[in-house]
Amino acid sequence: MAASKPVEAAMAAAAAPGSVNGVGGGSGTAGPGSGAGTLPRWHVALAIGAPLLLGAGAMYLWSRRRRRREAAGRGESSGLKRNSERKTPEGRASPALGSGHPDGSGDSLEMNSLDRAQAAKNKGNKYFKAGKYEQAIQCYTEAISLCPTEKNVDLSTFYQNRAAAFEQLQKWKEVAQDCTKAVELNPKYVKALFRRAKAHEKLDNKKECLEDVTAVCILEGFQNEQSMLLADKVLKLLGKENAKEKYKNREPLMPSPQFIKSYFSSFTDDIISQPMLKGEKSDEDKDKEGEALEVKENSGYLKAKQYMEEENYDKIISECSKEIEAQGKYMAEALLLRATFYLLIGSANAAKPDLDKVISLKDANVKLRANALIKRGTMCMQQQQPMLSTQDFNMAAEIDPQNSDVYHHRGQLKILLDLVEEAVADFDACIKLRPKFALAQAQKCFALYRQAYTANNSSQVQAAMKGFEEVIKKFPRCAEGYALYAQALTDQQQFGKADEMYDKCIDLEPDNATTYVHKGLLQLQWKQDLDKGLELISKAIEIDNKCDFAYETMGTIEVQRGNMEKAIDMFNKAINLAKSEMEMAHLYSLCDAAHAQTEVAKKYGLKPPTL
């Protein structure tokens, strides 16, 4: 099991930002039942990206269990309150003219200042309801001027009502100014905060909008859908904006050796990942008897292959470039290998021309062209271009129908597109061509399990669970089978057995950091053992300090604990490791949410519940 394998994204319960086919790293696998209402809120980190509001950020994660309980088992929105558009003015009940006078006959001159202010506000409300916003503004302005300065609550209401009228006239600057006055007088005034958030959105003040809507969400207990939708929207916009700039200027980073090996293990018909033949090895190599092997030729590509076997990955791109520049015998292979490593270091723009070139080489080995199509299709899916992705996979199947990798990776694409039946058909086609390919069999089981769980079909769920047992019995060395089974067992709340499955994964792949993260999350959900969970996730970082999933998960937990500074540090480390712009945008949304919560705590003393 590994975050770098295709299943880690393709089998996610929702198409969370992260890796597909391993190039993109990211958020790990989430089971289809991650949102089961009976699960404690620890589980939200495992199923990140799967709530009602995708990408809503870490500040909202604590509430997912409650929201999911309301939405579980029905294909509709959650039980979040659907507020009105908050367009109407408001205020406490106002005294009628002459109130406070026994005979009720006093005129406006006899009224005190607050009474006259309330009367002006009431008149403004009538104008507002009649759609006469300019007259309403005049009345609210009169109310503000009449209201005693010590009457903070009333005065804040008058400012908020005037802001509502300005909103109808789309005078966003005035809306923000009046709402600011209202909030200064009444810091926990939800309507004023939300109206100011909307004004900031219109004025393109995303950071300020996020802070205001964060405060609103906390004050409303994360129960108002309108507020949550705005938070989700602005977080996504901020995430994309920040990621676009960061990704453009990022330094390429080679992932860990375990990540790379796990990625290549998801291919069985990939020529460039096959071991070198004896005749290909260079004259520096010796066989076990110490005799020099035959030197086939001096080739940059063959040197790159040698470096692959030595796990000296940093030199591969440069050696492939030498082969390409010399237009050597292995130019097509060198183009594909260089493109693959460009993808691994997160340089999709550099990879695409190489992939395009390989695909266009009609005389090249068909398996090279099919492999290039698979990788370009994967890249398109990461860039949220599913139609282009589908076209590439279909073309690969057309030119090389006996290539099991085409069906294996297309099956994962179908999972992301929620075409589970088609995914299962592709996995079957892969298995027919490669009966001993354990990874495809495990992923087929998980696809069937997800389908059964989503349909709430208990008999099919049990059949899928039995299928997992058969896979791990048939392929006891397949760590992915144990890992996916563990996630299904967690959904079924069979925590002890899930823990055993993760232990088997660790026995098979002790250097796989992602397994430790999943096992740590299991401890949090199962035993609410925070110390053990954090210990295991820290172990993951110790094993692989390039495991972005571990940093992201640690950050999410720290948010839930209220440790914003540490959470932001973890998210920033994950951002620096992100291998795609989409994944980076997702991580920025988490980081921005934590930043906003920090500012809200400073300004208003507001904090959501913590662990």
Automatic annotation (TrEMBL):
Keywords from UniProt, A to Z, are: Membrane, Mitochondrion, Mitochondrion outer membrane, Receptor, Repeat, TPR repeat, Transmembrane, Transmembrane helix
Region feature Disordered, mapped onto this chain: 69-110
Question: According to its UniProt record, where is this protein located?
Answer: Mitochondrion outer membrane
State the InterPro entries in the record.
TPR-like_helical_dom_sf, TPR_rpt
Primary place of residence?
mitochondrion
Question: Signal peptide span per the entry?
Answer: none
* Pfam families reported for this sequence: TPR_1 (PF00515), TPR_6 (PF13174), TPR_8 (PF13181)
Q: Where are the TPR repeats?
A: 117-150, 479-512, 548-581
Name the family the entry cites. Belongs to the Tom70 family.
**Entry protein name:** Mitochondrial import receptor subunit TOM70
The organism named in the record is Microtus ochrogaster
- Gene designation: Tomm70
